[in-house]
Amino acid sequence: MFQHIVDGTTQGAIYALIALGYTLVYGILGMINFAHGEVYMIGAYIGIISLAVFTATGMTLISLPLCVFVAFLAALFFCAAYGYTIEKTAYRPLRQAHILAPLISAIGMSTFLQNYVMLAHGKDKFDFPGIFRAAFINNTVQISGARVNYLEIFIIAASLVTMLCLHLMIRYTRIGKAMRATAQDKKMAGLVGININRVIPFTFIVGSALAAIAGVMVSMYVGATKFDDGYMAGMKAFTAAVLGGIGNITGTMLGGFILGLAESMGIWLISSDYKDAYSFILLLIVLIVRPRGLLGEQVSDRA
Asked: Could you point out which of 77, 212, 235, 293 has its C-alpha 20 to 30 Å from the C-alpha of 253?
């Protein structure tokens, strides 16, 4: 059982990282960025391509951890650029339009990015360079009878540190306060001097960077990625965000971990054949009992 708890916590940490991108955009714009899953997928591709280049050029002889760190930076940079571009092209021109217009635009952007990667890299799986994966997978420690490899420890630790940094940034920094003010009331935030045309793109950039981190870690964990991996990962992350209370950062993180543990426990107790169904069944139950999610706030209509 403890082995499944470790696996579920690892998966939950990844869901939480991706879901934070959804909840940041929703909290500020009140809209769902359905292209977020594809940004996660692009992050996985960028990480694999970067490490493949390091392997081909012999950079691995210098330092494997340094190569992995640079691959994360490359994924962060490219995905942040994609996030900014998505906001600039799919959201900003439709900011004053009917609520369905940016939603349809985001779905179109998702389809475009998925097909763009398919045409650029093919339909086959993109394998993660084995030398880097082996360095993390082959080293394990025994905890309560479970074998936990260094990669699982790294994913959980890196996810928690990233979430903590995000929480501190939003809570205590100037840009974080501007993001919270914009989330409360964009018009009033603009009237008191906050440039919402900078805050909103910054939100997309941060969310996309979190998706990039998750993408590189998942591709390393699974050993490969594919052009359509972003769809299911995005749906699971969106489920985690709604489960915890979309718009609530703490709730989103909690929802991600609960979702990962629920999937892992379902595999252990029932079967792996229904892995994808467990998360949506859990979401259905929570929405029936608490429609706004576990930590979502009950908002009253104002006269």
From this structure: 77
DSSP character at residue 274: G
DSSP sequence for 170-218: HHHSHHHHHHHHHHH-HHHHHHTT--HHHHHHHHHHHHHHHHHHHHHHH
Which of 132, 156, 130, 131 is CA-nearest to residue 143?
156
| d(C-alpha 240, C-alpha 5), whole Å | 17
pLDDT range class, residue 297, cuts 50, 70, 90 = low
Alpha helices per DSSP H over the chain? 2-29, 36-57, 64-86, 100-121, 130-137, 150-172, 174-184, 186-191, 196-222, 229-244, 249-269, 275-289
- For residue range 8-18, list pLDDT tens digits in order: 888 889 999 99
Q: Tell me whether residue 125 is in a domain.
A: yes
Burial of 239 (0-12, 13-18, 19+ CB in 10 A): buried
Answer yes or no: pTM beyond 0.85.
yes
Looking at the structure of the chain, the number of domains it has is 1
In a domain, 287, yes or no: no
pLDDT in tens, 211-247: 999 999 989 888 889 998 888 888 888 888 888 888 7
The pLDDT tens digits for 113-134 are 999 999 988 888 888 888 887 8
d(CA 8, CA 27): 27
SS3 call for 44: helix
The structure tokens 């490490």 sit at 51
Domain that holds residue 206: 29-230
* Count of residues in the chain: 303
